[in-house]
UniProtKB/TrEMBL annotation:
InterPro entries noted in UniProt: Calcineurin-like_PHP, LpxH-like, Metallo-depent_PP-like
One Pfam entry name: Metallophos
Record key words, sorted: Cell inner membrane, Cell membrane, Manganese, Membrane, Metal-binding
Gene3D superfamilies: 3.60.21.10
Residues in Calcineurin-like phosphoesterase domain copies: 7-204
Annotated organism of origin: Chryseobacterium oryzae
PANTHER family for the chain: BLL8164 PROTEIN, UDP-2,3-DIACYLGLUCOSAMINE HYDROLASE-RELATED
Descriptive protein name: UDP-2,3-diacylglucosamine diphosphatase
């Protein structure tokens, strides 16, 4: 039985990279029936895309998104830095699928402002090659981390995240995250938004931010590399969904409803756009 959800926001899936948890994301998407699905950037990783590596589980995610958009779900694809190529197709619409750089929606009679968040990242804006190099380094770190966690699981021990350890203990990383959240929130307050919803920093969060001009709710959907998280709005409430907390009740991959889209045909579409 699928859960009805009014609004779901996911970001930073990074399809086409070794760190992507496509199988887990597909299990999550197969468990819900969202009225609106917002893909908030870095869904397909164009920076690190290789025709030699785009496995079936990654293709199934694209199939699932197309399947939702051809049925009853409004799907918004907000472009990020890793899929910035799609910014050429801003305002493109295919059925219920729309491509945009930012999105404004009314949620619970309140104004929600959604964008990926790379606009705040100086390394992306001014030294793109450094950002790309960092992306490759991050991907390698995730590969090594996955190998370590495989051994830890075999030994019956808890998984360990190298990236989270770095983010939580390196002062510059902690400051960057704090500055990111504060900047996004202050801009939202200045523009009279009640919610500001981002991705990019792979740090799931829901928190209230206030200053002399007003207040807003800052939300971040996290990622599907490490946190395996999404934002859900239902019954007048925002929640962060964590896959690890629910994986025991999610069904295994059941893709019968999306088999009508041929894998080879879909791969031709993906390579055409990249």
């Amino acid at each position: 039985m699928k859960r009805d959800v009014e609004l779901v926001v996911i970001s930073d899936v990074h399809l086409g990279t070794y760190g992507c948890k496509a199988k887990e994301l597909l299990r999550y998407l197969n468990s819900i029936q969202p009225k609106t699905l917002v893909l908030n950037g870095d869904i397909i990783d164009i920076w690190q895309f290789k025709k030699s590596y785009f496995p079936k589980p990654h293709l199934k995610i694209i199939k699932k998104i197309i399947s939702l958009a051809t049925k009853s779900t409004d799907v918004y694809y907000i472009t990020g830095n890793h899929d910035e190529f799609f910014r050429k197709f801003t305002d493109f619409e295919l059925g219920k699928l729309k491509v945009c750089n930012k999105l404004c929606l009314t949620v619970n009679n309140k104004k929600a402002w959604m964008f990926h968040g790379d606009v705040f990242d100086a390394s992306v804006q001014h030294s793109k090659w450094i950002a790309k190099l960092g992306g490759k380094g991050y991907d390698l770190l995730i590969i090594i981390n996955n190998l370590v966690n495989w051994f830890l699981e075999k030994l019956g021990k808890e998984k360990y995240s190298f990236s989270k350890k770095i983010k939580n203990n390196v002062k510059k990383a902690v400051k960057y995250i704090g500055d990111f959240e504060l900047t996004a929130s202050e801009l939202a307050i200045d523009n009279n938004y009640d919610y500001v919803i981002c991705g990019h920093i792979h740090q799931p969060q829901i928190r209230e931010v206030a200053n002399k001009k007003g207040s807003c709710t800052y939300l971040n959907s996290g990622d599907w590399i490490e946190n395996l998280s999404a934002l859900e709005f239902h019954n007048n409430e925002w929640k962060i969904f964590y896959y690890e907390d629910h994986k025991h009740i999610l069904k295994e991959d059941d893709s019968e409803e999306i088999r009508e889209i041929n894998n080879s045909d879909l791969m031709k579409i993906v390579t055409q756009f990249t």
